[in-house]
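Final report, results section. Input specification for complex C-07:
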Amino acid sequence: MTVDVPVAGRRDAVPASTTRAQPGEAPLVAIRNLSKYYVRGGQVIPVLVDIDLDVYAGDFIALMGPSGSGKSTLLNLIAGIDKPSSGQIRVGGVDIAGLSDADLAAWRAANIGFIFQFYNLMPVLSAFGNVELPLQLTSLSRSERRERVQTALALVGLSDRASHLPNELSGGQQQRVAIARALITDPTLIVADEPTGDLDRTTAGEILGLLERLNDELGKTIIMVTHDPKAAEKAHRLVHLEKGVLVD
Amino acid sequence: MFVPLLVLRNAFRHKLRTTLTVTGIVIAIAAFGLLRTIVDAWYAGANASSSARLVTRNSVSLVFPMPLSYAPKIRQVEGVTGVAWANWFGGIYVSERNFFAQFAINPTYLDLYPEFVLSDAERRAFAADRVGAIAGRKLADKYGWKVGDQIPLRGTIYPGTWTFNLRGIYEGAEEGTDTSTFYFHYDYLNEAVKRRFPRSADQAGVFIEQLRNPDAAAAVSQAIDGTFRNSLAETLTETEKAFQLGFVAMSEAILLAIQAVSYVVIVIIMAVMANTMAMTARERYGEYATFKALGFANGFVALLIFAESIGIALLGGALGIALTFPAAQAFVSTVGSILPSFKVTEETVVLQALAALAIGLVAAAIPAWRAARVRIVDGLRAIG
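Structure output:
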């Protein structure tokens, strides 16, 4: 059973055996006819062209492609931090392209966990404070937030670094804090943009192992952009983009 | 507590930058307060004036005196309950830098100024001593005078060395009462003038009139001036407040300039602070984009910037207000009693606080608007 809608002129995506989809299950992320372009000086510059893609709950997908292929743009659109020029994106049944900015922000807070290449931690907040950040948007009490943060930090093995500022942590530790922050609201989807791009080989392996555990043990759905073949090996499914178009 | 903590830590992330910014605001706010206080002090004499007193002077110029014979005629004008007179002495105490006002007054003068509080004993001692004098508390404290001291003045308008016995030190009944003036007996001065410059004797510099009804000031003024119309020394009578404001008007251009400078100082520091906040916000576009990606609203980002800017501005404002008081003290000790009533008013403090708040708000406006509008993807590109 193929999981991607075939489009004339493009080859199908990776076969269904690499997804965790159950028969008849609706995709968690359903993308149809998605396009994104920019207008610069009167010229239309296409970034993504007519993308169709399905991601199922529990999938671990690596978006790969050369620089400028549109993989980060696709990730941004799925994560709701950018809006498509045309087409539809449904995540968890919600057409996020049609949401207002305010609704989209609220939707992201509840549904998306972000892992960035350069960690994007707040330099003036401790590891605890950074992980707690998404919970500040909830109605949880202080003690409830504390409990969740401690659990998340324990999950990533940084319980003893809770009070450290980002500049007191190594790159790998900072990325672990970012992963804990991404998990803290129990999001529907985790998006990772080059999560090992700023790490050495050993540390990158640790982070990828952690992501693999999150997917295997906690069933987290992960979409990861990466240039790194080693990182891609951890994914269950590879999606290739070239010049804004899905290819085999 | 999350937002205040974040704002506080962000505000002091660049300690040197924040310290310099706060220092600039401290100086600007203190300067604003000091300049306003100087302007207030200039008007203080007029503000403390009584509405129940008139001042009559020569209509040509204050420099020209009026005959002493005018006094009984003025006393007869309807609405006048008391008349006194005074002559400006203009002497020098030790050094020309030690300026203070000196007046030769007639015996009824103090009756018209109940706000000058003297003990009965001091009042009697002054009245009984032909070469006696009284000084205001502020003046006496400045030079360390005590009752019984001999005070020498070198005359300028009236040449020679004049020595007085200090018989009393008067307090002010109200906070705004001028206690920086020196008074002695007109008769003592007039006797000396009669001996040396007889044609100049029996002249008064100004007459002071006590009104029965302050509301009749205009009518009584006209009546007094009408009494001496077409005489050799026609008069100009006005309320004491208008008389004091006349002195202020001579310096009006300077006062306007001082007021303008006080506001220019605020505008300058506002621009400096705006530059600081713009720079700070630009450096943090990546962080603001991350906040937005995590689900925080555009308004939250704007709030962070406004809160930080206002916090820094109010810190500088509070320190600047605190600095204004010792600065005012230092200023007064330098200029002496030229400005007898020099006080940092509550209104000035409130204006300083509002100025600091305005600095914080204006400085953050554009950076906050821009940061709130930055697209998440554009802000995230700023990282790395």
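Residues 155 and 267 of chain B are 47 Å apart (CA to CA). Chain B touches chain A at residues 2, 6, 9-10, 13, 286-287, 290, 292-298, 375-377, 380, 383-384 (CB under 8 Å). This concludes the modelling results for the funded period.
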